Amino acid sequence: TDLTVDLGNALAAEARPGVSEGALDRLDDRVARAHETITAGMAADGFGYASLGLPERTDPGAIEAAVADLDADHVLTVGIGGSALGAATVSAALGLADRHHTLDNVDPVETRRLLDALPLDRTTVNVVSRSGTTAETLANFLVVREAMDEAGVDWTERTVVTTGAEGPLRTAATEQGLPALSVPEGVPGRFSALSAVGLVPAAVLGGDIEGVVRGGAAGREALLAGGSLFDYPGYAYGAVAYALEQRGATVTAMLPYAESLEPFAEWFAQLWAESLGKDGLGQTPARALGATDQHSQLQLYRGGRHDKLVTLVRPRERADMAVPATDVEGMSYLGDATLGELLDAEFEATEASLAAADQPNIRVELPRVDGPGIGRLLYEMEAACVLAGELLGVETFAQPAVEWGKRAARGLLGGGEFPEAEAVAEKTTRV
Ligand code: PA5
């Protein structure tokens, strides 16, 4: 699980803007102080900081045992935000994307399409909500239950729930005798990928969840042994992202070069936005995919405003495929290559092209996209985010704007008395 973060193209060089080495040295004193806060929070299982202790607390064997009776070809996760994106990321990295589906929206057209497409008698329904009160999740759960009833499938035999200690979802699980796992205490949704929240679908489908937790554990060990941005990759990334934000890089583009990491970019976008977007601070995340988005977004990243950090992520090893030989002029050079070599060439060309245009970028490499690889990558980005939050001085583990919207939506639907709903009504104006 040897993950590396290469900061070379984010540092200032002659006539190139960026973070100077002197500034990094000075920042490292603040990183050392933040490290004390972070490790003390981890030791005390403090709210949010407990997330970085998850690899020690998560027992893959217990998760596998809890779902052992759920024999299924497909998993349908019903959850949203932190209760969906981590699981989608882990499943995709383990090669299970075709069998793990997510209902994280209440678009009736998509819900209908998915329910019609899935063999419901071979599908496990994985309902996830930390609070147990999120309207989108509860509504989709009720819709899926009814669809199973109508298809003559006993949903109580095919459903697993992951939720907090209390709430309507816990009550429903208890009343129906459903297998129920717990969202660990002190862990906000977007930091919960390395718990049952992120691992149940892969466990049902036979994925290597032990490897995912092992990758996270390697990250935790490296964090505890570190304390400096110069010797721990998560802190290197978090500190430089922070320093660039302070110097005007208010956009952060995540650009993995592996289809199986596409959901990772989405997961990262939530982590960064919901944790750091506070008090008028934070970077706006952009989701991209290499090499596809070289043919769309790259123009902006290279030639647009100098307000961005671009992170390129790739595995050092992947399964490869040769390009067949041809004599056709203008195509024959490709016959000596593999698709993997072409993807690597695109990666390196993009990196160099951004650097030549003075656009700061960071290279993150993992050994492979597999269980340990994704576990380590998720852990390092969580640690980076927690550090960046300390340096920015924001409440990393709160999400008041998200909660505001949830209360407003519930109020509008008659789910309780919420002043936020009145604000929605007052502000609605048609022109
Ligand atoms: O990270 C977060 O806290 C949020 O994105 C939540 O995960 C999301 O709002 C879903 O909440 P819940 O798990 O309570 O249904």
From TrEMBL:
Primary enzyme class: isomerase
BP-aspect Gene Ontology terms: gluconeogenesis; glucose 6-phosphate metabolic process; glycolytic process
Catalysis: reaction(s): alpha-D-glucose 6-phosphate = beta-D-fructose 6-phosphate
E.C. number: 5.3.1.9
Pfam families, per database record: PGI
Keywords: Gluconeogenesis, Glycolysis, Isomerase
InterPro entries with a match to the protein in the record: G6P_Isomerase, Phosphoglucose_isomerase_CS, SIS_dom_sf, SIS_PGI_1, SIS_PGI_2
Biological or metabolic pathway of the protein: Carbohydrate degradation; glycolysis; D-glyceraldehyde 3-phosphate and glycerone phosphate from D-glucose: step 2/4
Record GO cellular component, one term: cytosol
Keyword Isomerase (UniProt): yes
GO molecular function terms noted in the UniProt entry: carbohydrate derivative binding; glucose-6-phosphate isomerase activity; monosaccharide binding
Family classification: Belongs to the GPI family.
The protein's name: glucose-6-phosphate isomerase
Organism: Haloglomus irregulare
